[in-house]
Structures are given as C-alpha cells and as structure tokens.
Predict the 3D structure of the following.
Amino acid sequence: MWKPNTPGSGAATPSTPEPVRPSTTPAVSSYEQQPSTRTASPQAPAATGEQATIGKSLMIKGEVTGSESLYIDGRIEGTINLPGNRVTVGRNGQVAANISAREIVVLGKVRGNCQASDRIDIRSEGSLTGDVIAARISIEDGAFFKGGIDIRKPGDPKAAAAATTTSAPAEQGQLVGAESAS
C-alpha cells in the first residue's frame, strides 16, 4: 500500500488519503483535530493552559504546588496549593488534604478544608468533609457535604486575611460580623 502512494507525484499523495478517511476535511487537519480536541477541554479552565493528571494507581504524601490545573484520580495526603488554577477530584480520587485553588470540582472524596477564590462545585457523586471558603458554591442533589460554608466576595482583602488567621467557620463569621459592625 505504501508503494502505490510513493511513485505518484506530491499532488497524488494528499488526494489518496482523503477518500480513505470518512472526514470531509483534509487528511492532515482531521489527524490534528483529535489531539487538539483532547487538549482543548482541559486547557479552557486552566489559567496557564495546562493540566496535570494524577492517575488511579498514584499516591502522593506531602505538598502539591504548581501553576497549572490538576486532575486527581489517585490519592493525595497533605496540602494542595494551586492559586489561579482548577483542582478536579475525579470519581476515583481520594484526597485527605487542605485545598487552595481558584476553582475546586469534587467528583470523588475530599477530607479537608477547601478555599477557592472563585467557586467550589460538589457533584452528585462527590463527598466533601471540611470547611469551605469560596465566592460561590454548588452542591448537586446526591452529593455529601459536612462542614461549614463561608461565602466571601472575590478580592476582599479583609476576608482573605481573616481566612489565613482563623480556622473555624463560626469564628470567621463572627470575625467578619464584628468588623462590619464597628
């Protein structure tokens, strides 16, 4: 099959692969569309355009930091600090860590406090046990959540300072209320 394509001129080579493929686009662009389609969806939410993946068989103990989004399908124990990026805990993911990110999506199990500068999304299969600090939160029907919720306006420096100095949501609510009353 290679020999019939080789003797032909350069114009014959591109026309031969086109009828073989069911696509209406040229053979080269249909080949390139598959990889770019796979990378386009993870790049969309990421601030830097990259996404790392922790697979099912991986377990990490310690601190995870970086400048790209993270998809967790394995296990993590410790802390996750990815400011400006998305952390997604997949269906098989098990996280026993405090998470700090721009956006947190929970499909698996998370045990720890979560702080998001934008939003936290707990899907129907997800489970989150810990306190939440975010500008927006979404908890789907069927999701498990146990903890406190502190909704903060994005870019509020007093709220961000209070989040780093206190640890219990009840204290944070009292602190914010006391500051606004005086």
Notes: The chain is about 30% helix and 40% strand.
